[in-house]
Structure formats: structure tokens, C-alpha cells
């Protein structure tokens, strides 16, 4: 395993067989959007003023995303 790490310059990430790099890029974009949208919606100050009991639960959806 150390041989692969050293010969590849510290990483060996690749797209699984049967998927293109474009498909992997699309999945990364969608996953990043879901995470950022969840963080922004869970920490929205207008929402916190309206639902004062919710901020304690904000880490839960962020963790699931």
C-alpha cells in the first residue's frame, strides 16, 4: 500500500469503472450543493427568529447531509 502512496504522489483516488469523469464531477457538484444548502438553511437567522427551538437541532441535518 505504501508503494502506491509514494508512486502516485500521495493519493490514489479514481472514478469507479463504468463511470466517466463527467459523471463523477456532476455527483460532486450535486453533493456539494446539498451540503451548502443544508448548512445555509439550518443556520438562517430569519428562521432562527421564527423558530427559536430549532437552533439546537441544526447540527443534525448538517451531519446527515
Automatic annotation (TrEMBL):
Q: Which GO terms describe its cellular component?
A: membrane
* Classification via InterPro entries: Aquaporin-like, Aquaporin_transptr, MIP
Keyword terms of this UniProt record: Membrane, Transmembrane, Transmembrane helix, Transport
Q: How does it sit in the membrane?
A: Multi-pass membrane protein
Cellular location(s): Membrane
Domain of life the protein comes from = Eukaryota
Molecular-function annotations in GO: channel activity
* Predominant subcellular localization, coarse grouping: membrane
SUPFAM superfamilies assigned to the protein according to its UniProt record, in alphabetical order: Aquaporin-like (SSF81338)
Its family remark reads: Belongs to the MIP/aquaporin (TC 1.A.8) family.
The protein's name is Putative aquaporin PIP2-6
Taxonomic classification: Eukaryota, Metazoa, Ecdysozoa, Nematoda, Enoplea
Amino acid at each position: 500500500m505504501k508503494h502506491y502512496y509514494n508512486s502516485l504522489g500521495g493519493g490514489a483516488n479514481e472514478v469507479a469503472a463504468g463511470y466517466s469523469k463527467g459523471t463523477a464531477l456532476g455527483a460532486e457538484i450535486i453533493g456539494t450543493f446539498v451540503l451548502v444548502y443544508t448548512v445555509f438553511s439550518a443556520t438562517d437567522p430569519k428562521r432562527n427568529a421564527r423558530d427559536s427551538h430549532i437552533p439546537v437541532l441544526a447540527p443534525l441535518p448538517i451531519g446527515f447531509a
